[in-house]
Amino acid sequence: MQFDTWLLYLVSSIGLSLSPGPNGLLALTHGALHGSRKTLFTICGGAIGFVAVIALSMFGIGALIRSSLAWLTLLKWLGGAYLVWLGIQVWRAPPVTVAARAAPAAAGGWSLLRQGFLSAATNPKGLLFFTAFLPLFIDPQRSLPLQFAVMAATFVATEFATEFALASAAHRVRPWLERVGRRFNRACGGTFVVIGAALPLRA
């Protein structure tokens, strides 16, 4: 993966991590209920789930690329169209809200880890997103396993940092999201629209 392509992927990953999603909301909720240290179990479970989804998406794409490079071109255009559609949905989404609970139930680390993993691994939208998203950055001339390692590590790092920040600042972030959440959604949605429109046109 070329450095400029990786930078675009990094910016896209940050935008995805910041946009409203089930794992970010779960980290925010668990941070408010259980504290940031305990929510690390949730975040680690989500990271494992994301690696599994990225692997499933990427190596399935790799099989198509090996059969014909025309598939990569098609996937890039379909992926760009999907990102534009997703950006419009995020733009129109209502602000994220998290209901406060006075007496949170005790939760063990394994339970939180499992919740984070299942939230990432069983969300069909996640698989659809990565299947559309990853072809925009794949270089068919380079090693697919190496690109998988770079892409998975980059996304997991941005997702981990974002979710931990949400968990650590849960009580402060919640009212902020309720106040400026719609503008925040529009910024994330606009980013997806720009990426989806521009990346398929790159050589």
UniProtKB/TrEMBL annotation:
Superkingdom as given in the UniProt entry: Bacteria
Keywords of this entry: Cell membrane, Membrane, Transmembrane, Transmembrane helix
Keyword Cell membrane: yes
Gene Ontology CC terms, in alphabetical order: plasma membrane
Keyword Transferase found: no
Pfam family, one: LysE
Protein name: Lysine transporter LysE, partial
